[in-house]
Write a structure and sequence with these properties.
The protein has 234 residues and is mainly alpha-helical. The protein is built from eleven helices and two strands. It has helices spanning 8-33, 45-52, 56-68, 87-110, 114-133, 136-153, 157-166, 168-177, 183-199, 203-214, 221-227, and strands spanning 72-75, 79-82.
């Protein structure tokens, strides 16, 4: 009589594939957000499996997750390519994030945590360091850390994961916009203003600075489209 359970070796391979899929997903997602894999770039399952040293299963699973986020387009029996930046999705992600973070900074300003202020200042200091070094990828990571700290301090970590899963398109717009003169410095300045407003228990000012901070990239959408027309969908 055959066992209802997979053979030990098969089970071990399945377990390794399950563990590898999130890692492959994160690496591919980061490369797409950083535009190392720009819109239109082809993604070969076989080549990716060889590159990551995994079987085709975790690559397939990672591409399925990326398709769910709208970051890749899958054409069955033909090809998988990195999607163009969907402006409508970017605008919806901005709407979601702004609605959540305006409420979060209000809550945090009602009863500021000194430990949070220290962590926010640390993230800002790192951003200043990366700005001087011209390290945009590290700058973006520190930017995300700043905002993640806000969600965590408010006890809304799951909402940060939701925001992140919806932000692929606007994050790519921000990556296109970031090298613009003064953009990184403005982000740092806004983060400082938000932090100081929370520290001063000034919820209205914190919301005002946050609203301006989050709207910066979309306000430059026409200019971004002019410079990178092939990257954005109509």
């Amino acid at each position: 009589m055959e066992s209802a359970h997979p053979a030990p070796r098969a089970a071990a391979r399945l377990d390794r594939a399950r563990q590898a899929a999130p890692q492959v997903f994160e690496r591919l997602r980061n490369a797409i957000i950083a535009l190392e894999l720009p819109p239109g770039a082809p993604l070969s399952r076989a080549e990716l499996a060889g590159q990551f040293g995994v079987s085709s299963t975790p690559v397939r699973d990672a591409l399925m997750r990326l398709e769910e986020e709208g970051l890749v387009d899958v054409f069955p029996q033909h090809a998988t390519v990195v999607s163009q930046i969907d402006v409508d999705r970017a605008q919806q992600a901005h709407f979601l994030r702004q609605a959540l973070e305006l409420e979060i900074v209000r809550l945090l300003a009602e009863d500021p945590d000194p430990a949070l202020i220290i962590r926010l200042d640390h993230a800002i200091a790192l951003q200043q360091q990366f700005t001087k070094a011209g390290d945009f990828e590290a700058f973006i990571a520190a930017d995300n850390d700043f905002h993640a700290e806000l969600y965590t301090a408010a006890g809304k970590q799951d909402l940060w994961m939701l925001v992140r899963s919806r932000s692929g398109h606007i994050d790519r717009l921000r990556r296109l916009h970031l090298p613009s003169p003064g953009k990184a410095q403005n982000i740092v300045r806004h983060h400082k203003l938000i932090t100081r407003a929370i520290e001063a228990k000034d919820a209205e000012a914190a919301q005002q600075h946050l609203r301006k901070h989050l709207s910066g990239t979309l306000s430059e959408l026409d200019r971004i489209r002019q410079h990178y027309p092939e990257y954005l969908s109509d």
